[in-house]
Each structure stands twice: as structure tokens, then as C-alpha cells.
TrEMBL record:
<dbReference type="GO" id="GO:0033204">
    <property type="term" value="F:ribonuclease P RNA binding"/>
</dbReference>
<comment type="similarity">
    <text>Belongs to the eukaryotic/archaeal RNase P protein component 1 family.</text>
</comment>
<dbReference type="GO" id="GO:0000172">
    <property type="term" value="C:ribonuclease MRP complex"/>
</dbReference>
<keyword id="KW-0539">Nucleus</keyword>
<dbReference type="GO" id="GO:0006364">
    <property type="term" value="P:rRNA processing"/>
</dbReference>
<keyword id="KW-0819">tRNA processing</keyword>
<dbReference type="InterPro" id="IPR002730">
    <property type="entry name" value="Rpp29/RNP1"/>
</dbReference>
<dbReference type="Pfam" id="PF01868">
    <property type="entry name" value="RNase_P-MRP_p29"/>
</dbReference>
<dbReference type="InterPro" id="IPR036980">
    <property type="entry name" value="RNase_P/MRP_Rpp29_sf"/>
</dbReference>
<dbReference type="GO" id="GO:0030677">
    <property type="term" value="C:ribonuclease P complex"/>
</dbReference>
<dbReference type="GO" id="GO:0001682">
    <property type="term" value="P:tRNA 5'-leader removal"/>
</dbReference>
<comment type="function">
    <text>Component of ribonuclease P, a ribonucleoprotein complex that generates mature tRNA molecules by cleaving their 5'-ends.</text>
</comment>
<comment type="subunit">
    <text>Component of nuclear RNase P and RNase MRP ribonucleoproteins. RNase P consists of a catalytic RNA moiety and 10 different protein chains; POP1, POP4, POP5, POP7, RPP14, RPP21, RPP25, RPP30, RPP38 and RPP40. Within the RNase P complex, POP1, POP7 and RPP25 form the 'finger' subcomplex, POP5, RPP14, RPP40 and homodimeric RPP30 form the 'palm' subcomplex, and RPP21, POP4 and RPP38 form the 'wrist' subcomplex. All subunits of the RNase P complex interact with the catalytic RNA. Several subunits of RNase P are also part of the RNase MRP complex.</text>
</comment>
<keyword id="KW-0597">Phosphoprotein</keyword>
<protein>
    <recommendedName>
        <fullName>Ribonuclease P protein subunit p29</fullName>
    </recommendedName>
</protein>
<dbReference type="GO" id="GO:0005730">
    <property type="term" value="C:nucleolus"/>
</dbReference>
<dbReference type="InterPro" id="IPR023534">
    <property type="entry name" value="Rof/RNase_P-like"/>
</dbReference>
Length: 200
């Protein structure tokens, strides 16, 4: 083991070689404090930005036929269980649909509810050929409903200039398609205003 003098000489020599620009007096001043603070600059970690997964464009979805229902699947009976699920969903949403419930409350809930699985009927239309079409809503888009009828025919009914009726547990609600031209996801966040009279 080295003696104290040798150790002192080693430390002095080491500091002179490590800090050549510093004078001997300054080095001795540091040593008398018996504490040497070594500066350390930590490297800032660069946060890696998460890459957002890009979905398909509308054109790509059309080309891949993602939303098309195969002809062999276009059968009314296949979608009756979906209708039963929808009825239970609406009952839960409206707290049981009791006889003393306020009709405007049910109407307000239905305006924001998901209509996939609902049975609707076109009651009024500027195009007479649409009147009387009844079926289960399979798909809802911004401007159209895709409805499967009891005759196993898939009908594309525009919302514009059409009035739809919807019945559940004795409650009949009317949907004015011209005021309903929204996607289901957008409709759930929209505030609908009560209006006295609405015409086609």
C-alpha cells in the first residue's frame, strides 16, 4: 500500500494532468474542501413518437367490399336474433320502457341509439315506391339505410325525403330522415332540438 505522501503526490499529478488549464493554487483550494463535484451532462432521451396505424381509405374499403353483404347471407331469418338483441338494448337504455315513462324521453334516447337491428317501416316518402318497405336495418350510413325485408330482399333506402316509423313494446317513434343524415357515431354526440312541425 502506498503511503500518505505518495498518495497525495499521485492525486496532485492526476489533477494536473486532468485539468491542465487550472492553476496549482486552485487545485489545492479544491482539495482542502475535501469534495470534488464532477459535472455530468445526462443525455436527453428522445421520445419515440408512436406511429398511428392508418386505416383503409373509403376507396380501399369499396375495392375490398368490406361492407357488402353476400347474397347467401341476405336472409331475414338470419337477422331476427339481432333484432331481439336490439330490443333488449333499447329496454336497458330506456330503463325498462315502463308504461309511465315519458314519450319524449324515449324519443330522445332513440335519436341517439344505435339502430342496427331495428325493424323500421317507411311511412311517408316523396317517392311512392318506398312507402310500405318494412325490414331490419342491417347497415346505417350517413345518407342511407340498408334494410332486409321479410321477402329476403336487401333494400337501400335513402334518408332524405323519407319518414320512418319504429315500434318497440307499444311505443311508436317517427324518424324524419332529412333531419337524420348523420353517421351513427356522430349522432350519439349530437344534440337534437325539439321542433313543432316537420315536413318532408
Amino acid at each position: 500500500p502506498q503511503g500518505s505522501e505518495e498518495a497525495k503526490a499521485f492525486v496532485n499529478a492526476f489533477l494536473k494532468s486532468s485539468m491542465p488549464k487550472m492553476k496549482n493554487d486552485a487545485i489545492q483550494d479544491i482539495l482542502t474542501r475535501k469534495a470534488v463535484v464532477l459535472e455530468h451532462h445526462s443525455k436527453k432521451k428522445t421520445k419515440q413518437k408512436r406511429k398511428k396505424t392508418k386505416g383503409f381509405t373509403a376507396k380501399q374499403r369499396r375495392e375490398m367490399r368490406l361492407f357488402e353483404i353476400e347474397p347467401e347471407q341476405q336472409r331475414y331469418t338470419i337477422f331476427l336474433p339481432l333484432h331481439e338483441l336490439w330490443k333488449q338494448y333499447i329496454r336497458d337504455l330506456c330503463h325498462g320502457l315502463k308504461p309511465d315513462v315519458q314519450p319524449h324521453m324515449v324519443q330522445g334516447k332513440l335519436l341517439k341509439a344505435d339502430l342496427h337491428g331495428a325493424i323500421v317501416t317507411v311511412t311517408k316518402s316523396k317517392c311512392p315506391s318506398y312507402v310500405g318497405i318494412t325490414g331490419i336495418i342491417l347497415q346505417e350510413f350517413k345518407h342511407v339505410f340498408k334494410i332486409i325485408t321479410k321477402e329476403d330482399k336487401l333494400k337501400v333506402v335513402p334518408k332524405l325525403n323519407n319518414v320512418f316509423s319504429l315500434e318497440i313494446d307499444g311505443f311508436v317513434s317517427y324518424i324524419y330522415g332529412s333531419k337524420f343524415q348523420l353517421r351513427a357515431s356522430e349522432r350519439s354526440a349530437k344534440k337534437f332540438k325539439l321542433k313543432g312541425t316537420i315536413d318532408l
